[in-house]
Amino acid sequence: MRAALILCCLAGPALADIVVPTRTIRAGDLIAPADLTVKPGHRDGVARRAEDVVGQEARVALYAGRPIPLSDLGPPALIDRNQLVTLVFLRGGLAISAEGRALARGAEGDRIRVMNLSSRATVTGRVRADGTVAVP
């Protein structure tokens, strides 16, 4: 029993598969299945399954053959900088909408600044799934 415990401690970490790009992926690009391959290796905080990476957006450049840190991925942006967006204010039964210009990129759930085109005031809101920005 004691010998088995010692052998387990000396064996070291088990190798697992990690996902690596087959080509350099630029920041802002969406990741497709053809962009990925799996190779043996072990490292914490990196993608281990292609399903976790496909459809995500690269936040920084991802280089071919290098592991993909999960922190370098995110949901695809719905709003680009300088894009015209609809600002929505909902409170009780009241709904107010206005046109604005996005001052930053944002994915669903991100907080971004938007300039109201009518008043030229800058407000901060949360990007919704439909591409509108909800302001508090």
Task: Give the secondary structure arrangement, pairings included.
Elements: H1 2-10, E1 16-21, E2 36-41, E3 57-58, E4 73-74, E5 77-79, E6 84-91, E7 94-102, E8 106-107, E9 111-116, E10 122-127, E11 133-134
Parallel strand pairs: 6-11
Antiparallel strand pairs: 1-2, 3-4, 5-8, 6-7, 7-9, 9-10, 10-11
Task: Work out the helicity level.
Answer: under 10%
Biggest sheet architecture? 5 strands, mixed, barrel
CATH superfamily of the largest domain: Antifreeze-like/N-acetylneuraminic acid synthase C-terminal domain
Number of strands: 11
Global mean pLDDT: 90
Strand content: 35-45%
What is the CATH architecture assignment of the largest domain?
Alpha-Beta Complex
Strand-and-helix sequence, N→C?
HEEEEEEEEEEE
The poorly predicted ranges are: 3-7
Total helical elements = 1
What does this structure look like?
This protein has 136 residues and is mainly β. The protein has two domains: 62 residues, Type Iii Antifreeze Protein Isoform Hplc 12 (Alpha-Beta Complex), CATH 3.90.1210; 58 residues, SH3 type barrels, CATH 2.30.30. The chain is 7% helix and 38% strand. It is built from one helix and eleven strands, in the order H-E-E-E-E-E-E-E-E-E-E-E. Strands 6-7-9-10-11 form a five-stranded mixed barrel. Strand 6 and strand 7 form a beta hairpin. It is elongated, with a radius of gyration of 22 Å. The protein starts with a helix and ends with a strand. The N terminus is likely disordered.
